[in-house]
Design brief:
It contains twelve helices and 16 strands. It is an alpha/beta fold and about 325 residues long. The longest helix is centred in the middle third of the chain and has 19 residues. Bound molecules: nicotinamide-adenine-dinucleotide (NAD). Nicotinamide-adenine-dinucleotide (NAD) binds next to helix 4 and helix 5.
Length: about 325
């Protein structure tokens, strides 16, 4: 009874050693989480945002607590505690986001693991785009555009290139031109078969996209509906980039979770408060498309927007897979509470 309780600690290097820089484990885990979400086999309280500068602060300055329980065969509970400061890269030479994940055994509710969370968080977000693209992008798409060229953008691109071999053209834009050319260089080195162009305006990059990913820290929209070509699939990862008319005029709008998306004065929430968008106008939650209860893309020309706020079930399912892999391979550091 008094001998202490053992948990496993996984550093970022441990996670990389377990395959945590590649998309495969996240695509599998997030697909499972989304299917459990569509079946209701999960618990996910709305996430609280801790903002110390109140409403005056930058939109990306916050710490978010994201608890969840995922059911199914590998049931697990846990929490992602994810901090962000928009000026970490420029002022502190650190990545914008940092995170810790705690996993709890749902039988005793005791913690079983603690792990670095920013890699898992970024890679599971990229897996959401991959899964979205499988169902909502044109089959065989070859051209991807990414706006914002930071840490998240790179994981989005690497995961898309790992999972879709037909992609041969990448258009990048960042307000900071050096960030775009640096990322372009990294991608050319890792994927020499892909042509990578750093564009001079967001409009140029958006107009050329078959798949468009937003990965900025923008607080105001700048992408109007007119910029989107027919057939574009938009994975709106940074949430604030698309003008309201995009949500109103797109053929299909998909979210990860309606309750999570319709809050915090994000664009969908603003539209709902103005009476211009509602649950009825939403095409689906992504898990419903995976489980087949709602259709994905139905025609070549549809413009489809996925607006994924990010769900804790995705983090906990991914972390649980990595924890299981580490435990069976004897990796990580054992700690006693
Ligand atoms: N939806 C989700 O589940 C989810 C999960 C993780 C991160 N995110 C979001 O991803 C975004 C990117 O995160 P990051 O860690 O890569 O940030 P980062 O600070 O490393 O990179 C952001 C980049 O965007 C550029 N940028 C800012 N405003 C721009 C604009 N209007 N147009 C073009 N470029 C612009 C910056 O110069 C910077 O290079 C954040 O908004 C974050 O909240 C979403």
């Amino acid at each position: 009874m008094n001998q202490g309780h053992e948990i496993l600690y996984l550093s970022k290097q441990d996670i990389i050693g377990l395959g945590g820089e590649q998309s495969a484990i996240y695509v599998e885990s997030v697909s499972r989480a989304l299917e459990l979400h569509s079946k209701g086999d999960y618990v996910q309280p709305l996430k609280p945002y801790l903002r110390t500068a109140g409403s005056d602060g930058h939109i990306a300055d916050r710490i978010i607590a994201m608890p969840a329980h995922v059911g199914g065969d590998v049931a697990m509970s846990g929490l992602k505690w994810v901090g962000s400061k928009h000026d970490n890269p420029a002022r502190r030479n650190k990545e914008r986001a940092s995170a810790l994940i705690i996993l709890n055994d749902p039988e005793s509710n005791y913690p079983v693991a603690i792990m670095e969370g920013s890699l898992i968080s970024g890679m599971r977000t990229a897996a959401v785009t991959v899964i979205g693209a499988r169902h909502l992008a044109r089959e065989g798409f070859g051209t991807v555009s990414v706006i914002g060229c930071g840490v998240i953008a790179k994981m989005q691109i690497v995961s898309l290139l790992e999972q879709f071999s037909a992609v041969h053209m990448l258009h990048l834009f960042d307000l900071n031109a050096a960030a775009a050319s640096h990322l372009a260089q990294e991608i050319r080195q890792q994927f020499p078969h892909v042509e990578v162009l750093a564009e001079e305006t967001a409009e140029q990059a958006v107009r050329k996209a078959e798949v468009l990913v937003t990965a900025t820290v923008a607080s105001e929209p700048y992408i109007p509906f007119e910029w989107l070509a027919k057939g574009t699939f938009v994975s709106n990862i940074s949430i604030m980039d698309l003008h309201k008319d995009v949500f109103i005029r797109a053929d299909k709008v998909v979210v990860d979770d309606w309750e999570q998306s319709n809050r915090e004065k994000k664009i969908i929430n603003q539209l709902v408060l103005e009476g211009k968008f509602s649950r009825e106008q939403l095409h689906a939650e992504l898990g419903q498309i995976l489980s087949g209860s709602r259709p994905g893309r139905e025609t070549e020309d549809e413009i489809i927007v996925l607006n994924p706020m990010g769900m804790a079930v995705e983090d906990i399912a991914s972390a649980a897979s990595l924890y299981a892999k580490a435990a069976s391979a004897g990796k990580g550091t054992r700690l006693w509470l």
